[in-house]
Amino acid sequence: MDRLKNKVAIVFGAGPNIGGTIAHFLAREGARVCVTDVKEEAAAAAADFIRERGWEAFGMAGDARRDEDVGRIVAATVERYGRLDIVVNMAGRVHWDDVLNMKRDDWDDSVASFATAGLLATQHGARAMLACGARGSIIHVMSTAAHFGEADGASYCAAKAGLLNFARSAAMDLAHHGIRVNTITPCSMEHQLWTTMRDEMFDPNWVQPERRGFYSRQEYLDQLPLRRFPRAADLAWAAVFLASDESSCMTGSDMAVDAGLRHKYPTWTPGKHDPLDINDYARATRVTRYGEEQELLTELLGQPIDRS
């Protein structure tokens, strides 16, 4: 429980799923944490959750795409705790559209949400680490979109791929200062079953959207060798490792936390050899907040799963 004792962390993007869970696990391992989000209520809720369990945290609202906001958050954290050792960048917004119809504003927002936010978190975070003499760790949460082309996802894929190679370059720039920069790459997450995918999962009248790049949750599950989606806690444990001295000789690395998806042979479909129905999977899924289990997904929705 003391893997991060005496360390100070900032997590950009602190909802109750990935970002909030990472913040919770960092605090649980001994770090003092600033949790920040563009929504003040999200940052406050994550900080309250952590403090209620006896660990140290405070929340701040700020836009990770804005230089002045990131600088203000970093300065406030250092003023409060006297140093900075860990920065986790989880910020970003996704826009879907095909290349021919893509809006320039959506493209610009994707780049700002991921690549520019990554630059600002790294730049301000590294400067603060240098000022306090910390051999720190900077972690960017990626997506399989950084490694593959996805129909209807050009802006998202381009922005994430840009962030991935930015992180690698930043790792080289900061290596001689003893500051490490690494990334974590998940695929589609289990919590999306009860957030962005709940209509698809539980509405028998749901209609597939007109998107060339659309795939059902069953199709996605069939591609996962470990036969499950990654959970927020899986990413949080990876972040704890990369934030700790256990990974002190790692920089420029990308950790795939994706149930084996990226490394399988492309034409192999695990679900054909080890079938698992997505409805059965969902029935056994527990909703989590900040990495703590709540109720079964079916209990949360208050309705049976349609199996037609």
Look at the structure and name the CATH superfamily of the domain at 8-188 and 229-260: NAD(P)-binding Rossmann-like Domain
Helical stretch tally: 11
User: What proportion strand?
Assistant: 5-15%
As laid out across the biggest beta sheet, the strand order is: 3-2-1-4-5-6-7
Structural class: alpha/beta
- Integer average pLDDT: 92
How big is the Rg? 19 Å
Q: Which stretches of 5+ consecutive residues score pLDDT under 50?
A: 304-308
CATH architecture assignment of the domain at 8-188 and 229-260:
3-Layer(aba) Sandwich
Shape: globular
Total number of strands: 9
CATH class of the domain at 8-188 and 229-260: Alpha Beta
The separation of the N and C termini measures: 46 Å
Q: Helical amount among residues, as a percent range?
A: 40-55%
The major beta sheet can be summarized as: 7 strands, parallel
Summarize the structure.
With 308 residues, the protein is an alpha/beta fold.
